[in-house]
Amino acid sequence: GPKVVSQELSAVLLEEVEAVLRRRPVIWDNLYANDYDCRRVFLGPYMGRAPGLMSRLHGLLLNPNCELQANFIPIHTLGTWFQSELGSCAPPDHAGTQPLCLGSSDSQGAQDGSYSPQEALELALRDWVAEINQQALEPGR
């Protein structure tokens, strides 16, 4: 992105990067990284990424928080975002091959295939509470 920790990534920005690289980029997303300031912990949903970005990428990596448990919500909502991205068809790449286009069959995503950070956060919180409750019931905890 335009910064080390970019609040937003747009299709226009990725088109510029693709033109320079002459290929679709892989993004190392620092949205939730806190290794530069461990006093901060980011717990919000994956957001600030334009719809349809996956068709412009070869891959996306998420640089997580340093605190393992604090990554549940960011990673869960990234998964929800990714599922919504699978619901949209990508244009053919430069080699002329058509990327895989899947419909959104996952009931956890938005019904129309679009991503809602608020809905993704609510789903992640529900699943995180269930995970915490499950761990509390395990022997030795």
Automatic annotation (TrEMBL):
Q: Which domain of life is it from?
A: Eukaryota
Q: Which InterPro entries match?
A: GH, Glycosyl_Hydrolase_84, O-GlcNAcase_cat
Q: What SUPFAM superfamilies does the annotation carry? A: (Trans)glycosidases (SSF51445)
A Gene Ontology molecular function term for this protein is: beta-N-acetylglucosaminidase activity
Q: Name one Pfam family in it.
A: NAGidase
Q: Where is the GH84 domain?
A: 1-86
This chain belongs to the protein called OGA GlcNAcase
Which species is this record about?
Leiothrix lutea
